[in-house]
Write a structure and sequence with these properties.
The structure holds two protein chains of two kinds.
Chain A: H1 4-38, H2 40-51, E1 52-57, E2 64-65, E3 71-83, H3 91-102, H4 106-115, E4 125-128, H5 133-144, E5 151-160, H6 167-170, E6 173-175, H7 178-183, E7 192-194, H8 197-201, H9 203-206, E8 211-217, E9 223-230, E10 237-240, H10 244-257, E11 260-266, E12 273-279, H11 285-288, H12 293-301, H13 310-313, H14 323-332, E13 342-344, E14 347-350, E15 353-356, E16 364-366, H15 368-374, H16 377-387, H17 389-398, H18 420-427, H19 433-439, H20 450-462, E17 465-466, E18 472-476, E19 481-483, E20 491-492, H21 497-512, E21 531-537, H22 542-548, E22 558-565, E23 572-579, H23 584-602
Chain B: H1 4-8, H2 12-33, H3 43-63, H4 66-71, H5 73-90, E1 92-94, E2 97-102, E3 107-108, H6 110-128, H7 135-154, H8 158-162, H9 164-174, H10 179-200, H11 203-213, H12 222-236, H13 247-250, H14 262-295, H15 299-323, H16 341-359
Antiparallel strand pairs in B: 1-2, 2-3
Helix pairs in contact in B: 2-3, 2-14, 3-16, 5-6, 5-7, 6-7, 6-9, 6-15, 6-16, 7-9, 9-15, 12-14, 14-15, 14-16, 15-16
The chains are: A alpha+beta, B mainly alpha.
Chain lengths: 634, 364
């Protein structure tokens, strides 16, 4: 046995150890109590932030149909690849690795990340939109290896325009601007919204409501299970007034003719837009998943300005197509009758200036109907001179020229029909009577947009109602199609039927007579009484053209054809405008294909095949002539 | 040899508490390694085998009189040094350290058994002396501890190496080391700390300590485990998230949850209530073993019990503190609960000696 003092020492020292251990354990217990009970709420939240993520579920935009249910705009699934900075240990490493894995430039990735630097770190920054399958596979493999846990691959519904048509009509979508985000609580950075066309005008309808999904993820960001899901609501489906077949005929027509320009085709009874184009166009698909810079830059710097919607923003001299407005002003003001004759000897003198007719041989004694048919300039100089510019302005406006049409597309521009008041206000100058003479044949300050020309023809076709062209026919709010009533007409006049008939007769003769001066033969459709008027307008004065000499710039005349059909009970009205199309008769060839398609469809005949060639007249009467040429033809 | 009456002197309460802790450990290993997406994990089965082996080792340590072991302690000690040397040259490398001897069924980690060897040799050494140990006694005892410590630290396994220090201090303390010498040694250690910091510690060890002082300075790196440990424990609350319901451990936010951080998982899934129960069991085991030291027939027995208990207690307190994110992260397991065969077998064998001393308190 151990000596007693040893025993006592051992016992007492063991007692000390007992106390020490008990105290240490008590401290531990208190420590756990502080963490688990006192600070529980804080740590619980941190644990949740650790393992729960809210992912946005993008809502697809509404599908757009034509008037017969043909799909015009739909959605497809694309994948976007994003970085979640919150999960990254070293953003530079992530950027380097991503750039290498995705095969994109490192500087570009860095720039995107920098641009979104100020956003909260949990918000994904999209680095690649519409990733290729190879990119998705490459990233996914590395995510599973936990090499890139901070990278998110998510399916995003993306706009798809199945056919390249009516680009300016559909418009395009793109990431919402910071300015718009600031002004609207519903919008978030990165949202896709309509930027032009109906995508913009009807964005509120087309845009769905994004959903959200709350998921549990593990430490490498892999989704383990879904806690709750709020599914996205698809945008509303829209039905347009557009007729796919008519639209296709327009696009085919321009393609075959090989000219840029614009066309608008309406139902003159209610303003339904059946077809609408502006060329050159762009591919709206290029915008759907974020347009790359090079494409954007080239669209913006292209001399042909493909982003401009010529149908509503292009302002051109109408030339001879303006003559019906002058005629109507003379008739309705009681200054002339349809039987009013003028004598054309190839030119006429007004206020000491010589004004030429396009036909230097002269038309002789000519009445209104024949003056329209043969586009006699002297006749309309004479009428314009008698009516005066203000009355011409009044009636042109009634017909829809020089004002906005009110079509449901953004950024429509307004043409111009001059008046004494306009000149006083804008130029602070008096109107000279001599200026009215040029206005009589649609020259001078007169400018029109193609869409306003379509309204003009629709008004002549329906007897005086200036309908509002519109694109939206019906909306599906989720419970079937609800028709959208056509908007109210802009104005309404009652044109004396006899006087109107004289103009219509003249327009009918343009297309259906074989007289040498009748320029609209190309649009003739036997049995459908197509009525129309060609026009060509210089883009530069004769003197200017000579001065320009040899230039790469296209200085050929613009060609117009405005029309409605059938003459006595019109069902379709519109305009074909060929930029540098040289002759109005070329535009008439395109219009014929459109009208042929329209009537074939209406009568359920097989649609006409697209001709390989319209046999257009490409001879430029001014190309080699040089000096003084008549200012006007047609 | 194993007299029938000895059977009645086995401390069944201590044994029950030990087995209770083992059971909690198996349950937590099952919970954290359960992953329905990857099929059943077999780790908890392995742990059960280790417990059976450990109980076998415990019975072996019980059957012979503890004095038989202490008498042979010099041989055991030399054999132990040989094995540790063998490991340094021929052990298998895992996670950058050479700590294991590969056997057919599992890898043996000799450093776990070194604790028992050191406890035996120190008990024998100090038990033979009477009165307070002299300077030279302390120097020899210190050298006996330092030798295996250095070998283990060389593997490197600084965590396990450090657990040998409490063995020496506890036995020396009980042997009557004067308090001022004790204080002097503590002072020496404190003074050595900056020197060790400068020369002995590796960079990863330094960063562990510096991030402990401010975990947020490296929230994704070395400080990550510590922050996650606190989140794990704190989010458990009063009653816990429930068995297999812990998100931190299950979703691998906390690394090596079934091993070093098993107590964090317990705290997450069973809450403060579970923590108190486990702490209570550990405290009971320690106090009960201290009781065995007091009841021991001779100083040798007391020293042996305390030697075994010292590393155990140190490891329990350190690991639990670390599992709450309140101490620097060190690769130190929680005895009886953490996954790991060598640790479990060595710990149970050690408690075999504790039971042995208590059981034979009346024999001669």
């Amino acid at each position: 046995m151990a000596p007693p003092e040893d025993r006592r020492r051992v016992t007492s020292r063991l007692t000390v150890l007992q106390y020490v251990v008990t105290v240490l354990f008590s401290i531990l217990a208190v420590g756990f109590w502080v963490l688990q009970v006192v600070q529980h709420a804080k740590f619980e939240e941190m644990a949740e932030n650790n393992n729960q993520r809210t992912l946005a579920l993008r809502a697809p935009r509404g599908i757009v149909f034509d008037r017969d249910g043909h799909v015009l705009v739909e959605n497809r699934n694309s994948y976007s690849i994003s970085i979640v900075r919150e999960r990254t240990k070293d953003i530079n490493r992530t950027i380097r690795l991503m750039a290498r894995v995705l095969g994109v430039e490192e500087a570009r990735v860095r720039e995107i990340v920098d641009r979104h630097r100020h956003e909260p770190p949990y918000r994904p920054i999209t680095v690649v939109q519409d990733a290729t399958l190879a990119q998705v596979a490459a990233v996914s493999a590395r995510r599973l290896d936990t090499e890139l846990p901070e990278v998110l691959v998510e399916p995003v519904p993306t706009r798809r325009y199945p056919e390249t048509m009516a680009a300016h009509l559909f418009g395009y979508v793109g990431e919402v601007s910071d300015k718009d985000v600031a002004g609207d609580d519903d919008l978030h950075s990165g949202d896709i919204v309509g930027q032009s066309g109906i995508e913009k005008v009807y964005n509120a309808l087309l845009r769905g409501e994004d959903g959200a999904k709350r998921v549990v993820v593990n430490s490498v960001g892999r989704e383990i299970r879904t806690l709750e899901e709020d599914p996205p609501t698809e945008g509303k489906r829209l039905q347009l007034t557009i007729d796919y077949d008519v639209q296709k005929a327009i696009e085919d027509g321009f393609r075959v003719a090989g000219f840029n320009g614009a066309a608008v085709v309406l139902d003159p009874t209610n303003g339904d837009v059946l077809g609408f184009t502006s060329r050159p166009a762009y591919d709206p698909n290029a915008f759907a998943a974020g347009i790359d810079r090079a494409t954007w830059a080239s669209l913006n710097t292209d001399d042909l300005r493909p982003l401009q919607d010529r149908a509503i923003q292009g302002r051109y001299s109408p030339g001879s197509t303006f003559k019906m407005a002058v005629a109507l002003a003379g008739l309705e003001e009681g200054i002339i009758t349809p039987d009013f004759h003028a004598f054309c000897q190839g030119h006429a003198n007004f206020y000491g200036h010589e004004f030429a007719c396009w036909n230097k041989k002269g038309h002789g004694s000519i009445d209104l109907r024949h003056a329209i048919e043969q586009s006699c300039d002297v006749y309309f100089y004479t009428v314009a001179n008698m009516v005066g510019v203000d009355k011409i302005n009044k009636w042109a406006t009634m017909l829809g020229l020089g004002v906005k049409s009110g079509i449901d597309l953004p950024n429509e521009l307004q043409g111009l029909v001059p008046s004494t008041e306009w000149k006083r206000e804008k130029m602070h100058e008096k109107w000279y009577a001599g200026e009215t003479i040029s206005v009589g044949i649609g020259q001078g300050a007169v400018s029109v947009t193609p869409v306003s020309m379509a309204v003009y023809m629709a008004t002549l076709a329906n007897g005086g109602t200036r309908i509002t062209p519109h694109l939206l026919k019906a909306v599906d709010e989720g419970s079937g199609w609800k028709p959208v009533p056509p908007p109210a007409p802009q104005s309404k006049i009652d044109i004396d039927p006899d006087k109107l008939q004289a103009i219509r007769d003249g327009l009918w003769m343009v297309v259906n007579r074989d007289d040498p001066g009748a320029t609209g033969k190309n649009a003739r459709l036997p049995g459908y009484d197509v009525s129309g008027k060609t026009g060509s307008a210089q883009v530069i004065s004769n003197a200017g053209r000579i001065a320009a000499g040899r230039t790469t710039k296209d200085l050929r005349d613009n060609g117009w054809f405005v029309f409605f059909a059938p003459r006595d009970k019109p069902e379709i009205a519109g305009v074909v405008f060929l930029e540098h199309g040289i002759h109005g008769s070329n535009a008439a060839s395109v219009a014929r294909h459109i009208l042929d398609t329209f009537f074939a469809k209406k009568e359920k005949r097989p649609l006409p095949v697209v001709p390989p060639d319209f046999h257009l007249n490409y001879t430029d009467p001014y190309a080699h002539k040089g000096a003084a040429v008549a200012a006007e033809r047609n | 040899m194993f007299e029938r009456r000895l059977y009645y002197h086995i401390d069944w309460a201590l044994l029950a508490a030990i087995l209770g802790l083992c059971a909690i450990g198996v349950a937590m290993i099952y919970s954290t390694t359960f992953d329905p997406t990857r099929g059943m994990s077999r780790l908890y089965i392995t742990q059960l085998y280790a417990i059976v082996l450990g109980l076998g080792a415990m019975v072996f340590m019980l059957t012979l009189d503890y004095r038989t072991f202490t008498d042979k302690s010099h041989l055991i000690y030399i054999a132990m040094l040989a094995v540790l040397l063998y490991v340094i040259f021929f052990g298998t490398v895992q996670m950058g350290a050479r700590r294991w001897i590969p056997l057919k069924v599992f890898n043996l980690q000799p450093s776990e058994f070194a604790k028992i060897g050191v406890a035996l040799v120190l008990a024998k050494f100090f038990g033979e002396n009477r009165g307070a140990p002299s300077w030279s006694d302390l120097a020899i005892g210190g050298a006996l501890t330092a030798l295996p410590l250095a070998l283990i630290a060389k593997e490197p396994d600084l965590g396990t190496a450090v657990t040998l220090l409490p063995v020496f201090f506890a036995v020396a303390y009980l042997a009557g080391m004067r308090m001022r010498i004790f204080g002097f040694m503590i002072l020496c250690l404190l003074l050595a700390a900056p020197i060790a910091w400068r020369f002995a510690l590796k960079d990863y060890q330094k960063s562990r300590i510096s991030t402990f002082l401010d975990p947020s300075q490296d929230a994704k790196g070395a400080g990550y485990q510590q922050i996650q440990a606190r989140i794990t424990v704190g989010s458990g609350g009063l009653s816990g998230k429930g068995f297999k319901q812990g998100t931190q451990g299950q979703l691998r936010f906390l690394p090596v949850a079934h091993n070093d951080f098993i107590f964090s998982v317990l705290a997450e899934e069973q809450g403060f209530a579970g923590v108190l129960a486990a702490l209570g069991l550990y405290l009971f085991v320690i106090l009960r073993a201290l009781e065995a030291a007091r009841l021991a027939k001779d100083r040798l027995g007391s020293y042996l019990v305390l030697g075994v208990l010292a590393s155990f207690t140190f490891q329990v307190i350190y690991n639990i503190t670390m599992s709450a994110g309140l101490a620097p992260v060190k690769g130190l397991t929680l005895p009886l609960m953490s996954y790991g065969g060598s640790s479990l077998i060595a710990t149970l064998a050690g408690f075999g000696l504790v039971l042995n001393v208590r059981m034979r308190r009346f024999t001669n």
